[in-house]
Amino acid sequence: MAASPHTLSSRLLTGWVGGCVWYLEGRAMQESPREFMHLFRSVRKQWMTFQHFTFLRRMYVTQLNRSLNQQVKRKPEPTASPFLERSSLAQAKAETCAMRPLPPPHLPLSRKPNDKELLELESASVIEGSLDVGRETKDEKQWKEMKLHLDDLPGVLARLSKIKLTALVVSTTSAGFALAPGPFDLPCFLLTFVGTGLASCAANSINQFFEVPFDSNMNRTKNRPLVRGQISPLLAVSFATCCAVPGVALLTWGVNPLTGALGVFNIFLYTCCYTPLKKISIANTWVGAVVGAIPPVMGWTAATGSLDAGAFLLGGILYSWQFPHFNALSWGLREDYSRGGYCMMSVTHPALCRRVALRHCLALIGLSAAAPVLDVTTWTFPAISLPINLYISYLGFRFYVDADRKSSRKLFFCSLWHLPLFLLLMLTCKRPPGATCAGGDSGLPTW
Amino acid sequence: MAALRPCRRALVSPLCRAFSGPGCQLAPERAGERRDTAPSRVSGFCPPRKSCHDWIGPPDKHSNLRPVHFYVPENESPLEQKLRKLRQETQEWNQQFWANQNLTFCREKEEFIRSRLKAKGLELRTGSGQKATLDAEEMADFYKEFLSKNFQKHMCYNRDWYKRNFAITFFMGKVALERVWNKLRPKQRKTST
């Protein structure tokens, strides 16, 4: 499950983001002056190119790793030749190491054997020696210097901040912004976009900072930068601070204090509640669902300045979506969770896990019907979203009944395309201005 | 990871107690017991003389953690030494915990599979000679049981890990500031004279 969701999700992301941006551009053309269009088009081109480039680069690296063995840069030859016998190799290394101010290594010859034993030991070690030397030399090649190269830094920071997840979070915020009533304000949108992105980067970095030994023990997360020693914990925390402070400042003073407060709250909820709670109780899943629900609410409050019913509806949609998505994913990771000490429903309460996933699939149908009632969309929306909602509910039902890996994977992959499509349909069915029952003034941004 | 044989108990106990809360006196005793069950990895690796950075190795086969070979500069300050010792000791402590955890998991998993197969009346190996396994749904009982059995142990470990992680990062910050200050100070002397 490790490789394919990433490539699939990045393709979907490109498509989803493209769709979202196309819609926003359409809105901008209707409402904003022509100057903005030029800026918008150039931003879009750069961003699409970046997404495609990242996707292609990742595909290339995956192919390269498959076809070649990973070439490790040879470290300079040690003082001792690697082809000595094992015992003398250990001694030679002891000498070279002792010359540097290190505590002396423990030699395997510290006990006092008698002569016969010593002869046997020597002969055995000669035979083993050549094999072990081969293994040790190969082992030595895998040691890497913990020196940060500036060329690697962007890639390392991208992985530290879980850039793909951040991109998805920012897309849901954009959807929230776009769905909110009122004229589209491009500067406000860009500030919200950047501010939320920075806040998400900060939260994800702190999460990785807390989880190093656990991430080392799970297949899905064992290649993260802190686990591989590509960045120090101090640098990770500094990076997180350098993202959080400007991010929250942008949201508070550039957009509005409500959005800033939601941003701070979400960072706190993710790093200080969700992350530790993963080891304590299954309640972490519900907290995590709230964390996922807040970004579209932030998008809405950025556009309108207030927490309307529409904001809660969007939050509710993302909240409900988290359950089929995460519960299905966690079904295949039960062994890793159990060994790592993670309290997840899939391990401790499997029936509840499946029941909750199905329940929230059905809730999505209800929430799509609530959208026109709350003047967020027209009545077309529940009608055209019904097929995809019914499909995910069907897969949720299959997962509930079958409770096997196959049905969990189907549900997980469906959730990956269901959300972007759902939000896109919402955008296309947005209630046009002037047709709202709520009235004209709905808290336009003051600046 | 060269060179960490000086009496581990002497290193582990005081620092463990310093970082464990009052409810976690289990840690030093457990470290003592675990030394016998989970062998720590000793690598013959020695970094090149020219390098003045730490080196990180491949994941350990028992603990899945990557060992770090710490660089000791000639003019190591007391603060730098304190940081290095803390990192070395935390590395040992983590290694012990996870190696033990993973080995226990594998052992108990094997026992569970064996007992379930026996209860079903099946052999441990199939006709083709391959190891018989249980499917994911049967293993789910084992995963649930293992998680609840180790819950308290994980609580203690998590609390210690958070404390150590914060302490290491805090000292790294202090060391970084100290180095910046040392770099600035000779310049100040030059400008004043």
Structure, described:
Chain B: This is Cytochrome c oxidase assembly factor 8. Chain B: It holds the Pfam family COA8. Chain B: It is found in: Mitochondrion inner membrane. Chain B: Keywords: Membrane, Mitochondrion, Mitochondrion inner membrane, Transit peptide. Chain A is an all-alpha fold. Chain A contains 17 helices and 1 strand. The longest helix of chain A is centred in the first third of the chain and has 34 residues, at 34-67. Chain B is mainly alpha-helical and 193 residues long. Chain B has a domain at 33-110 and 150-184. Chain B contains 5 helices and 2 strands, in the order H-H-E-E-H-H-H. Chain B has helices spanning 8-19, 26-37, 78-120, 136-149, 151-192, and strands spanning 55-56, 68-69. In chain B, helix 1 packs antiparallel against helix 2, helix 2 (26-37) crosses helix 3 and helix 3 (78-120) runs antiparallel to helix 5. The model of chain B is unreliable at 1-41 (pLDDT under 50). Chains A and B meet through helix 3, helix 4, strand 1, helix 8 and helix 9 of A and strand 1, strand 2, helix 3, helix 4 and helix 5 of B.
Topology:
The complex is a heterodimer of chains A (447) and B (193).
Chain A: H1 3-31, H2 34-67, H3 86-99, H4 115-141, E1 144-145, H5 153-160, H6 163-179, H7 186-210, H8 212-216, H9 233-255, H10 257-277, H11 284-304, H12 309-331, H13 334-340, H14 345-348, H15 350-373, H16 380-402, H17 405-428
Helix pairs in contact in A: 1-2, 1-6, 1-17, 6-7, 6-11, 6-17, 7-9, 7-10, 7-11, 9-10, 10-11, 11-12, 12-15, 12-17, 15-16, 16-17
Chain B: H1 8-19, H2 26-37, E1 55-56, E2 68-69, H3 78-120, H4 136-149, H5 151-192
Antiparallel strand pairs in B: 1-2
